[in-house]
Predict the structure.
Amino acid sequence: MTGRLRDRVRGIRVVQASGRYLDSPYSSVQLMLAAGGGLLFLGLLMSASTTISASVHTTGDAPWAQLIREVEFIVLSLPVFWLAVRMSPAAYRRVAYPALALALIALLGVLVPGIGVTVNGAHRWLQLGPLIVQPSEFAKFAILLWGADLLARKESLKTLTSTRHVLVPLVPGFTLVIALVMLEPDLGTSMCFMLLLLGLLWTVGLPYRYFAGLLLVVVAAVTTLAVTESYRMARLTTFLHPDLDPQGAGYHTIQGLYALSSGGIIGVGLGQGTSKYGWVPNANTDYVFAVVGEELGLLGCMVVLGLFALFTYSAMRIAHRSQDPFVRLVASGAAIWIAGQALINIGYVTALLPVTGIPLPFISNGGTSLVLTCAVLGMLVSFARHEPAAAKASQRAAESGSTARWVSMLRLGAPRLPVSARTSVAKQAAAAARAATEAPPAKPAAAAVAGAPAARQRDRTVRQPVAARAGSGQRPAAASRQQPGPHRTAGRTAARRKGA
């Protein structure tokens, strides 16, 4: 099982284009930025379209209140994204355990009365000054780093040959976090943690018989949790027969389908939809994809699906091209997490899955979710900047002197070398130039050495007439006026001495 981590990721059939673009060392960076930037731009558009109605019909705030809060979280996400881009893979490994400890403390804090914020009987938020954060979103990011670092260390120690070393303590750690999240309670977020666990185990190369058994355990646990609560059981029943209670449990599903079907091919226009005004519940969060279908139509839905597909492809490409086990595990785990969460959200909006209340990454309103998805995007961009091909291209640029910061930003390539490294490169180049200038004449080649006896014979042939004519004052023959080679120069010097 030791070598399966590399084989599992590299065995993915990543589509390669015949053109030159995907061969560029910076293509992974640009693809990831295109996917994440496109999703964030669509999320900002849909936020502007849906938050006005959400403020009026849901919270009773001013029309622009929720949009202003969304912009505040976007502004907060920008430095988080930039910091995530500047961090190296080694820095992410160093913060894995402190991040997990902080996440566990925060998950316990939401259960403490007076510290956690309770909404509709759910204890999922913490009040940090003017901001309300959801620790379970941060816990996804933290446990992904912890699980990847744990498995990468075991691979370096060659201990992944045993299934017990693969599952312990990884599965107990995930079980602890899922148990804390279920105390909130939050089944939808717990399913995201299960996706992360399955993604890591699949990437590390867990044998399929154990993987299938663990998958059955996960399905059984989700089913048990669903039937133990009345509202979850109602959601499961509504999924099978939404028309039995069209004004109650089936209202979300039916209205979401109406909104999707009313958009047609090109939609009714951005901001022109009517289902968000009290018809589709949670139109700015859980059911934002229904509003996308109504206002942007089938084409808008296909764009959203295409951008998520591009994001997943780019993350798997980064995992495929990396030589670091930690990077491969984190990149593939993040791809499965984001893609799986998007599929679950789109699945229950289109009535293909039971309603779970999971937001659509990058697009649904939500402060903590937006900040964490931007952190994941920045982390993947950082991994792409540290790909071997990108690092080599950056080093060549540093040696050639074309490492201006604005050039690096426009190129979106690997990180610049530190000042000490750039100084060392310059000193090495200067030393090499001085050595080339002050070096003694090169030794003659093998062919020249082999021809040395013949050259000495020609010296003697030329030297005697020259010496004889030097005493009589005659000018040398035309043959002796040819361009002198090294042996002719030596012959003339000896002739002059003899003549003198």
About this structure: DSSP finds 21 helices and three strands in the chain. The radius of gyration is 35 Å. The CA atoms of residues 164 and 170 lie 10 Å apart.
